[in-house]
Amino acid sequence: MVKYFLELYLKPKTAWEKLAQENFTIPQLYIRLVIFFAFIPAVSHFIGFTVFREYYVSAIKKFLEMAEKDPEQPKRTVEYMKALMAELMDSDITQELFIMLVTYGFELLKPLVFTVIILFLSPAFGGIKDPQKSFTVAAFALVPSWVAGVFYVMNSPISMFMVFMGMFYTFYLIFIGGEKVLNIPSEKSKNFQFIIVVVILYLVISGVIGQVETLIMYRILGV
């Protein structure tokens, strides 16, 4: 599997054509790929909260200063930020470990979410309906997004930009993989329509999942 990573960045079409010939099972991909790369954003958050915590504390202070001037700011969000800042300034890292594990758990869910979306949409746009191929596209396409998660170690505009670019490239890889692996035709822009709907559905579903993750974070921090 490792041999495909660099090629996916440099020659994505060629890499997907080769991956289309593979028959990876979902357990294989989880054990040999997902569990390792999905850990990058989680451990990066932990390192950021512990080693580079001053960057996060500084950003939270700026947010709270802005929140004081904005009465429309949700009170629970403000309370969450205050609790997070207090936790970061504490020497006990127990809560940070819990946050890391929760983040890791939700990162492990991402390929399943993408797989369900891809599996549902692929036949509608002329592609094949194959759970293993759909999961292959989802898992390999998420690698750039997970790798970009290393920038969570520091809270800065550059970090957020790199995370955004990682997600953008993930969608680009799904766009290419849809044609090369799932046989979605490029005629009449079907592959383009496919990725547009994938993006929309993913944003909606991830928004709902994000709310659940946020509620768990609230419980961890006692908000």
From TrEMBL:
<dbReference type="Pfam" id="PF04893">
    <property type="entry name" value="Yip1"/>
</dbReference>
<dbReference type="GO" id="GO:0016020">
    <property type="term" value="C:membrane"/>
</dbReference>
<protein>
    <submittedName>
        <fullName>Yip1 domain-containing protein</fullName>
    </submittedName>
</protein>
<feature type="transmembrane region" description="Helical">
    <location>
        <begin position="97"/>
        <end position="122"/>
    </location>
</feature>
<feature type="domain" description="Yip1">
    <location>
        <begin position="7"/>
        <end position="206"/>
    </location>
</feature>
<dbReference type="InterPro" id="IPR006977">
    <property type="entry name" value="Yip1_dom"/>
</dbReference>
<keyword id="KW-0812">Transmembrane</keyword>
<keyword id="KW-0472">Membrane</keyword>
<feature type="transmembrane region" description="Helical">
    <location>
        <begin position="134"/>
        <end position="154"/>
    </location>
</feature>
<feature type="transmembrane region" description="Helical">
    <location>
        <begin position="194"/>
        <end position="221"/>
    </location>
</feature>
<feature type="transmembrane region" description="Helical">
    <location>
        <begin position="29"/>
        <end position="52"/>
    </location>
</feature>
<feature type="transmembrane region" description="Helical">
    <location>
        <begin position="160"/>
        <end position="182"/>
    </location>
</feature>
<keyword id="KW-1133">Transmembrane helix</keyword>
